[in-house]
Fold these 3 entries.
Entry 1:
Amino acid sequence: MAFQSPSPQPSIFKKKAHGSTPNSTPALSLSSSATSSSSETVLDDLGLDYDNGLSYPRVPPTSEQVFTTVHSEFGHCANEKYRYTSQHRAGTQYKSYPEQDPPYYILLTTYLSYLMVICLGHLRDFVGKRLQPSHYRHLVSQHGYAALNSDFDSFYTRRLKTRIDDCFSHPVTGVPGRTMVLLDRYSPDYNVTMVPSGTRTRGLNISSYNYLGFAQARGGCADAVETSINRYGVSACGSRLEGATLDLHQQAEALVARFVGMEDALISSMGFATNSTIIPALVGKGSLVISDEFNHASIRFGVRISGANVRTFKHNDMPSLEALLREVISQGQPKTHRPWKKILVIVEGLFSMEGTLANLPVIMELKKKYKFNLFVDEAHSIGALGPHGRGVADYFGVNPRQIDILMGTFTKSFGAAGGYIAGSKALIDRLRVHGHSGCYAEAMTPPVLTQVIASTASIMGISSAPEKSSSLSLTARSDAINPELEMEAYPGRAPLSILPAWMPITPSMADGTDGKMRLRRLGFNARYLNRGLRKLGFITYGHDDSPVVPLLLFNPGKMAVFSRLMRTRQVPIIVVVVAYPATPLVTSRVRFCLSASHTKEDVDLVLTACDEIGDLLDLKQGSGERWSLQEITDRAVELVGMPELV
């Protein structure tokens, strides 16, 4: 964060659409940015969008604090009231907000919608294959060759997804931070093809897994990455480093192990591959995997190719898990009834489609009782939950050493790529030899490794770091530092000696204030949007502290309308809609992803849009006490600080 805002210019937010003229957009308030005073600004990028045809204002922060962030990438917010520490309250039982069912007419119309799509789709296929056979050539056998695509399997894609394809895979450019620039497009053939219009639209980004806001082109992490490119060269960024190990790999693994509180860690260049290539090295024939029914596809794939038996339990249902454990332990292996060689329970720390947290305290009690091994996938929870950002174990105050295997990715909170496996040194040493990712996958590139190291150190803070100087080259690190000063108990700070000696470090990174600020801003934003939507009357899933907020739409036709209405507002809001087969058939939803880069006003903007669109689409089907939009925005701090609303 090393950028000072220039002098103000008139507030203009230009949005260009195909065949239309640019429209000016009302300014957004930045009252949360500082004190009681406020000034008007918009979703600007301070003139950093190079030659994109957009014009944005240059508005300095209205506070005694001098912000050093680019406002479009990381929103200005100096008001300490808009902070919250994400942490489970000791002595209380963990509960997710109870899932609510919509009225029967909502379910009935949703099923009727799918029925109409299916009936009309088959009728169009029947007629089309006879009147326009060229359009179905890829679905029928030709010249003795079987069709590459199954008519039945592609039916859903052709008859539903294609109709709303403008809501998916939208090309973007620039940094996916607080705001994001969409490359505008249109379709002349009902979404079969998309044609770029040549214009761009900047909107509020509420769709990226940028939980801590490290998706920045300016700042301490970006400076570190730039230095690594200068040091290791550009060629290393694109070359195939299969089997290669740099000093950065060892430093990153050591730092990640300390970050999550484990003895050792193994990093991989791809998050999906971390699960799919490591799980087969953990279990095999004669072993049993007990998996949450909503676990990620990478876990399912890894279990499938491992050859182990697999049983699933109802999502986050601890009585269901215990009943299954009793059954499988008493029955043993199929046919032979011999004891299982190994029982591995796999759960996710934060379920990205549901917004629920694994009930880790109860799982740990079951682990002591039934003696199984525990694998926790923290792809979405690491860096996003807990007072120190160490994930679901940190959130619940559980000693991570009591968990056998911790897995996570760097693509969300860390703004990088790849994943890691952490555990005991003996386990990690075995995985280095038997895991497929180490033998066959490409190694992580130096810039990505540097981003991982810099962002992790920023969250942790750095022990024994020099206190002065705005940017520290720290060439004299290492042997002169007393090792005893660096061995802090978990959750401690990052030891200075294991960081690259050439990596620049800002003061806010060294003292941990940057990471703490990001964690507390994310905690406030997540809790505020979760509770604000429920007070408006929407049905949402998940926990109050989850940065992923699923808002239920139910009817498939409402997905496209909701996404388009959000994207075409005066201040566009970029969202992600999700439906079957990623979710159950009748629970189509929009999934908001909060970030530390969002300001309180950004969340107000989302609530305002949802309030208007919710009335239009009849989405407010939730029960419980309702507040007006004005009351929610005025009492935001009180709403966030209320006891658990369960």
Entry 2:
Amino acid sequence: MLKPRSTATRELVRLDGLWRFALDSDEVRSPWGATLDTALEAPVPSSYNDVFADAAIRDHVGWVWYQRTVRVPRGWAGERVFVRVDAATHEGRVYIDDQLVAEHVGGYTPFEADITDLVAPGQEFRLTIGVNNELTNTTIPPGAITVDAQGRKKQQYFHDFYNYAGLARSVWLYSAPAVRVDDVTVVTDVDGADGLVRYDVALTADADVTVRIEDADGAEVGVAEGANGVVRIADVHLWQPGAAYLYDLVVEVRQDGDLVDTYTQAVGVRTVEVRGNQFLINGEPFYFTGFGRHEDTAVRGKGHDDAYLVHDFALMTWIGANSFRTSHYPYAEEVLEYADRHGFVVIDETAAVGLNYSVVSGFLGGPTVPTFGPDSVNDQTQAAHAQAIRELIARDKNHPSVVMWSIANEPDTAVDEARAYFEPLVALTRELDPTRPVTFVNVMLAPVGVDKVSDLFDVLCLNRYYGWYINTGDLEAAEANLEAELRGWEQMYGKPMLMTEYGADTIAGYHSVLDQPWTEEYQAAYLDMNHRVFDRIASFVGEHVWNFADFQTATGIIRVDGNKKGVFTRDRKPKAAAHALRSRWTAIGKEHGQPASVTQGAS
């Protein structure tokens, strides 16, 4: 799905700000039929849970309603008019006045509707958006809903981060011509010193297409005719980790010689390949340093915030990180665009987290049922998972920063049923995008020799917590056990291995001269132990610490005000481990020839 852009033939209006807001209830009936009768206002973009000082809103299960009045710019006469929602967690409905125009299930990918026939340039309309946070065994991510003895609806979710909900990303009104670019797909390659840009343009009607490629200075460096083809860029400037270079692919659509639409797509020319036990970018071995992260800040929840966007990337640059995983859902498109412009490498992940009922029944205290079954993960779940993969790739396929698709985090792959579930999903991912490696993230409960699906994937991504959940406080035993398992994976598969999670909960300001869990010293020693092991494994291609920053979770016996594994606090203050990581990662960056933008010398 094309992201709306302002071009010579298109305009857009961001509808962010304060919207009328209400919980769905017996008193709030058909809220799209009239002005919402409420005194509450909610900010967009933002999760609604922590904005109000009201437990009933924070813990609400079900639909909520956002509403505002919108005026269509009077200059849009003769244009098609669309409303687009960047994300509604986890289900959305859009109404124009009292007319339902769009429905979507899936909390982290966009949806839109053509509303041309329902609105008029220069006139106002009432825009109502319903958002439902309910999760079931057939949603991605999954969950379960119960009703307690007091008649209160309760949501159990199977992931270890807070189930923030609402309109966490922007809402847009935009115009486009009737005959227009409907989609653009770009695949890049390298031929000697030249770059090859293969493109495919989908149109809403037959028309003539010209594609021009402009360099960063706006000079034309290639041109082609037709809706699909190849443009050769002589002496190409490659997009590289830490040294991003973007070209503009400008699509021009003409009918009878007249320009009817134009759309610009940023392009980074680079190649990605798995060869033996190496992960290659532009034919050179790449070593991932960085984090699993979360879209999570105080008050806003998962609400996108440009200030935090810039600050978080600045901290990742300071610490020497060159990459991150969008754990455990697709991030806002603005995040990927920033990564494109600044040379960060991204593992892009679906929202398939929690497909593991053994973790739910043990770690999270949920039902003791098999992961795969008619009342748990079933054919409907698999269909929802497939749709999540389709939408992820459709949205993010053109980002040069995205080098690998992760289709699930910590699913139950220790049982035979996992293979029948995942094999068609891997095939679908490769069919949709044969150019990028495919992975999933393996949980400790499915170690080497127990896991049933890793042979299907290109890269082994492992989450391991030796020294924290296992061998707690005993780093000597943890080091031996971690190395033994990693060597087993290496011997069995010979594939690139990436540690996508390793970490220890740490209370900022808690200190000890001993190896005491929860102290800043223990977190640093724990990470150092892992690094010694990584450095001894030839197939190791990277390390993503869990987590970039402390984040909110459901409150429970093992979580007090969230997960504390961040090397930065939730308000982005560094713990001692951040300085240790900076020393290691800047040295690794220099060793691998990365530019100064990601190797600012450690002090």
Entry 3:
Amino acid sequence: MVKPWKFLLCQMAMNMFYHVVKASLCLGGHDIFAAVRENSPTGQFIANLNIKGDPGANSIRLCLTGENSNWFFLDGQTIRLNSSSTRPLDRESQGSVIMAALSCYEEDTVQSQYRIMVEILNENDNMPVFMEETIQPIYISELALVNTVVFTVKAKDLDGDTITYVIDQASPDASYFRIDLPNSGKVVLDKPLDYESKNQLEVDIYAVEMNTREKNNVTAMLTVNVLDGDDQYPFFLPCAPISKDQVHSICTNPVYTSNITEDEEDVILNFAPGPIHAEDGDKELQEPLFYTILSGDDHGRFIIDNQTGEIMLTMRVENRLLSPLYRLRIMAAQKNDPRKFTVATALVHVQAENRFPPHFNRTTYKGFVIENSSPATLVATYGNQVLLVQAIDQDFKDGVNPRLVYSLQPNTKLYHITPEGVLVAKTDHLQAFDRHIMEVVAMDQESGEITHATVDVEVLQKGQPVPRSQFGEERLFGEMDAKIAGGIAGVIVIIVLAALFVLVQLLRRRHDRQDPVDRGSVALGKHPNVEVTSPPPTRRRS
């Protein structure tokens, strides 16, 4: 006999989950083995029942029990699937087999019990999915070897399908990678990386089902960050690229220059362009460098700070005429790899002390040009003399510094000033009564010292004489020196140009006769950063 509490439990189970079939037989059943596809609809046929028994039995009851019995219901003599839209039969979550028990009761007594075992057949209802940890941003050194595995991707498919991996050749940087074994997901470097030209790559990889008709697939875009490797050499600044390719900083090292005097010693030299400084070509690494003077230190006269690159003059120069120029070869090398180095040249010019700055002997110069059609005319001053705007340098016994350079501010196309300080006007571009006020700048190419003066030029009418003095500037229209006026107005272009040429040659000869030893140069502490474009001429002090 079934105990009352067990019978009550069976009745409750039948009311909640099962259909009860009443019949007159309880014999002839057997274990049921069947199969059904996952995601099958509600009521899907599972198996038919075939129960036969002794005649005269009062009644029978069929009861489904077991862990998975709620997946079935009885429809007469048929077992059907008890799924729903909210509870589909899913092999991946439920498992490959569901089991239940079919008990047959006659009145309150179990007469037989059978097993129900149903295999869930797989459907291709899942897409491949990349494992997140394998598709995160990847970091690879630019020194990674070609033909080596640089990273691995992995995808999973809940249906258990075989996955193969394919690089999308349309992705931006697909040419850098390849997959030799499609089922492994191992990605091989196919060509060298270069941080300086491209430091981030993007590649798309497919994970594709190989053993299914649908060939379901998924794509992942991987970001590959290229890490800087120690593959570049140092270079001195400023960098002068030798080609239009700015990627690798292939530079021509600068030539550094500095000026010193005979009286200087125990001083740190200032160079132009300066300071002397080199950098590692690998911008992200910036390996520390050390500096060395390879040659030209003149037995310790010049020493270099191997950390900063500063050069110190330790001993004064006894005779600048015997040693007007020192040429130093400086090396900057990586501390961690001295084989990576670069070499630059530093020129040190020894010059006499500059005692006096240049200056103009007046603040304003007055000039005159007579209107005419000549392409070029010398600007005159009072008394129809050639206007000479020239600065005086008392470091020279005659006051003439041949290293002075003159320029006009603002820059104008109407006037030009020669190296000797002579103003030339483009007369055919001028009109009577025009007045032009300009600033003349004189700069010492050695010391960098600058002085200024103003030039005030008036354009006179044809036939109008140039004033004889500063105090007789009234224009005398009727009192014109016919000889001077005819000479200015009547000369042809060739004669004007010839006169200019002769005058310039005479002035140059005058300057060439200057004793080079009388040349002024950079004083201690005066504009030490000015670059000397050529060694100064030798000179004697006055």
